[in-house]
Amino acid sequence: MGVCERFAGSWRRFIVISLRLLFLLPAGLPVRSQGDSQTDNKVMDNITVRQGETVFLSCSQGDVVTHTAWLNRSSILYAGEDKWSVDPRVTLVTLNQEEFTIKIENVEMTDEGQYICAVQTSSKPRTTSVHVIVQVPPKITELSKDLVVNEGANVTLKCLASGKPEPSVSWRLLSPSDENIGSDDEYLEIPSVSRQRAGTYECTAVNEVDTVAQTVELMVNYPPTVLEGRDVGVTLGQRGTLECEADAIPEADFEWYRDDRRIFNGFDGIEIEDAGGLSKLTFFNVTEADYGNYTCVAINKLGSANTSILLYEVIQPTSSTLLQVETTSVLQMTSSVLAKTASENIAILEGPGAVQDGNSGSTATYAPTCLLLIITLQLLLKF
Ligand SMILES: *[C@@H]1O[C@H](CO)[C@@H](O)[C@H](O)[C@H]1NC(C)=O
Ligand SMILES: *[C@@H]1O[C@H](CO)[C@@H](O)[C@H](O)[C@H]1NC(C)=O
Ligand SMILES: *[C@@H]1O[C@H](CO)[C@@H](O)[C@H](O)[C@H]1NC(C)=O
Ligand SMILES: *[C@@H]1O[C@H](CO)[C@@H](O)[C@H](O)[C@H]1NC(C)=O
Ligand SMILES: *[C@@H]1O[C@H](CO)[C@@H](O)[C@H](O)[C@H]1NC(C)=O
Ligand SMILES: *[C@@H]1O[C@H](CO)[C@@H](O)[C@H](O)[C@H]1NC(C)=O
Prior knowledge:
Layout (H helix, E strand, L loop, with lengths): L2 H21 L16 E4 L3 E4 L4 E6 L4 E8 L2 E5 L2 E2 L6 E6 L3 E6 L8 E9 L3 E19 L3 E4 L4 E10 L3 E8 L2 E6 L3 E4 L8 E8 L4 E16 L5 E3 L5 E10 L3 E6 L2 E3 L6 E6 L2 E6 L8 E9 L2 E11 L5 H32 L1 H6 L3 H22 L1
Parallel strand pairs: 1-10, 2-10, 11-17, 18-25
Antiparallel strand pairs: 3-8, 4-5, 4-9, 5-6, 7-8, 9-10, 10-12, 12-15, 13-14, 13-16, 16-17, 17-19, 19-23, 20-21, 20-24, 22-23, 24-25
The protein binds 2-acetamido-2-deoxy-beta-D-glucopyranose (NAG) (6 copies).
């Protein structure tokens, strides 16, 4: 004999005893406890109800019902119209020749189980049992807090959920959205986390009743990297701005250097402005002394990076400056010719052969064209 049968047997015995007590059955009435052909036991389909809702329990009566009762496990809820239960959620709906219906409002998890309708007719007792299954929407009971970690750390996100039926839990990277990052598990393991894995993670718990979701922010700190600086050309007296862009979390602080000297905001005619990972060094009126090599250093608690930017002079291409450039170069050429002539005049006077024997090739190239001029000058100097 199986456990179930034994259980069913003891149930039957129990019901009979209950009914005896309840209905004060005459002791002589032929009520047998096991294998009783005179007792009609019926099992109804399971009733599934959601937590908080109302469930109706109904059983049919019959022609000559003398006594009837609804039981929750071992306790009587209603005996006929008499309420035995002290639970205010349990009330009588209908009791007549056809049916006996009670209802349980605001159903709780603990209400789950077997309910029995016991009916005593003039001929034989009859029981109808029904199993009430209570479903509970999922609820996230434990969730990782928002996290700030350094790049390379091993991260585990945790999401525990309760509910009936047992909810299935999953993780995904919500923003920036990435289908490939996630897990169908209560735990999401991210070994050696990279900066690309930072973002908003969503934990979802699903069962037949409902779906719930909550999010966790994962922040990944990393040291700065700076974009290669672009050299900037500015005309004397004009405004000039050097820009330095850094990528870092937490956001980088910037330092500017001219060669090895630190430059501070508020220095004469200089302004340093930092915002959103970008630092700008502005010269309101570029002077000759400002031209040079500048270094921008981006720093956060994990490290630093730097780049060098050249501030160089640009001559404005107006017609007057163009003319100036030409005149200057002509004058420079003449003076260099004169300087060379001073040291080589003896050689030149000695003849072209001596010039070709000299080490300087460039002297040799321009010498013939200027020969006339030089000779003229020398003649002039002699007088
Ligand atoms: C009723 O529920 C019980 C317990 O969950 C289960 O063992 C049984 O198979 C169900 N019966 C039906 C008919 O669904
Ligand atoms: C049914 O019985 C269980 C166990 O004793 C109890 O926790 C629950 O509140 C009862 N439900 C009703 C509706 O009486
Ligand atoms: C991460 O886990 C791996 C493997 O378990 C281990 O070798 C490594 O040291 C861990 N890294 C950190 C930063 O804890
Ligand atoms: C820039 O500075 C020079 C010399 O100090 C001055 O002559 C000139 O007016 C200034 N230019 C501007 C635009 O302020
Ligand atoms: C500017 O200075 C940095 C460091 O002081 C140096 O590495 C770099 O070569 C310099 N750039 C130029 C163009 O002189
Ligand atoms: C700039 O970075 C180089 C290595 O990339 C480092 O050697 C140098 O010291 C840094 N300069 C400053 C001013 O931080």
